[in-house]
Amino acid sequence: MAISSPGTLSLEPLDSSDPDRARALDEESWQPPCEIILDPDAECSTDVILVGSSELSCPPSPGLRRDLIAYEVKVNQRDIEDLCICCGSFQVHTQHPLFEGGMCAPCKDKFLDGFFLYDEDGYQSYCSICCAGETLLVCENPDCTRCYCFDCVDALAGPGTAGTVQAMSHWVCFLCLPFSCCGLLRQRPKWRGRLKALYDQESESPLEMYKIVPVWKREPVRVLSLFGDIRKELTSLGFLEDGSGTGRLKHLDDVTNIVRRDVEHWGPFDLVYGCTPHPGQACDRPPGWHLLQFHRILQYARPRQGRPQPFFWMFVDNLLLSKDDRSVATRFLETDPVTIQDAVLVWSNIPAVRSRHSALVPQEELSLLAWDRQRAKSPTPGPAKLVKNCFLPLREYFKYFSVNSLPLYK
Fold first, then answer.
1. How far, CA to CA in Å, does 352 sit from each of 42, 115, 179, 360, 394?
2. Dist. CA 282–CA 378, nearest whole Å
3. How far apart are CA 81 and CA 101, in angstroms?
4. Closest by alpha carbon to 228, among 172, 277, 162?
5. Given pLDDT bands bounded at 50, 70 and 90, which one contains residue 244?
6. Is 116 left (phi over 0), alpha (psi -120 to 50) or beta?
7. pLDDT for the residue numbered 379
8. Which helix (H) or strand (E) holds 195?
């Protein structure tokens, strides 16, 4: 992820071969109506934090796309729903779930793949509008993880807005602002439900997508961790507080005698995690036993049918399952696995796990990887450490706490 460097955005001149177009745009006085963005010297509220610094720099200005969207909407009076607000295309396939405007098919696919991807700093990996972008502006609302690229901000909020925002000391994003309109960027009502609907209708994934939870409704996550303790990883990501996480994570190494009544008594749970043993770890159970026991306990922990409560699960194989066991896992868990860092296989319903990581590698390669793992003399990272970043999309659903190790800037 590129780091955004505070500064002002230089605007590209309009094409001199089309003076009527340039004059029309100039007469429209295309500036955003958002005072919080236009006046960097104005006092800002104390519920936002810094986004800028003293250095000045800026990336190239994407003038063509900015001019196209502005011209079509402001001069040609075209409905913004008939334009892809991600790229400016007229070939609209569906509507953007967060903001008024359309999306073409390629941008829709990019959005579905990228929206729930997060970096190690806890912020989204790509722009919340186009799910692309190299230099991103970070929302500094402590409860928000969204980012916006220079291209989208200047094209939709108004030319020069990205540079102005970058020079500000405090900024909150277009989904956190108390008003829903900023230039051409208009927040959709009930956008969380629209986001879920987009995934339900357009995603190739058969897994149920849960509606993301507003900040004020998020509760601490309740975790059932089987055969491997993920307390350290979840604490480092801010999902569990140091010293006060006890009671919100239940860890079990042996579930042989666990029945449904036990799980219901300990629960309800929001996340169930399980794994096969770490290579070299002494274990008197075959790897397939861990899979079957995980599936059994998972059925006990699932919320009752009809409840909209977000519920997530993950099973990690340290390349110990046989080919037949992997087929059983795919059939029972009703999803295909992905390969992470050529070290583990993961089955999960956490959003974007499959987007970030590769599809299942060929059987021959898996066998070689497993053989190399067994022969390796140096210790390998535990499964929880390898899949740690896969838990970051849960920030959209559960409360998380401040973690000092997370960097402030992106």
1. 39, 8, 30, 15, 11
2. 17
3. 4
4. 277
5. low
6. alpha
7. 53
8. helix 191-202
pLDDT score of 50: 30
Q: What is the pLDDT of residue 64?
A: 57
If you average pLDDT over every residue of the chain, what do you get?
77
SS3 78: coil
Tokens found for residue 245: 């996480």
Neighbouring-strand partners of residue 99:
187
Question: What token pair was written down for 256?
Answer: 């042989």
Q: Alpha-carbon distance 134 to 94, whole Å?
A: 25
Of 41-55, 80-94, 107-121, 394-408, the one with minimum mean pLDDT is: 41-55
Taking residue 143's Cβ as centre, other Cβ atoms within 10 Å add up to: 15
Tokens of 344: 């583990």
Q: What are the residues whose beta carbons fall under 8 Å from the beta carbon of 340, sequence distance 6 or more? A: 346, 357, 386, 387, 390
Please choose, from the candidates 178, 211, 192, 206, the residue with its C-alpha nearest in 3D space to the C-alpha of residue 97.
192
Quote the DSSP letter at residue 97.
S
Per-residue pLDDT band for 193 (boundaries 50, 70, 90) equals very high
Better pLDDT: 120 or 269: 269
**Other beta carbons within 10 Å of 14:** 17
Q: Which residues contact 295 (CB under 8 A, 6 or more apart)?
A: 332, 333
Residue 69, helix vs strand vs coil? helix
Name residue 318's amino acid: N
DSSP string, 240-301: S-TTT-TTSEEEES--TT--HHHHHHH---SEEEEEPPPTT---SS-HHHHHHHHHHHHHHH
Q: What are phi and psi of 106, to 5 degrees?
A: -60, -40
- Full-model pTM: 0.75
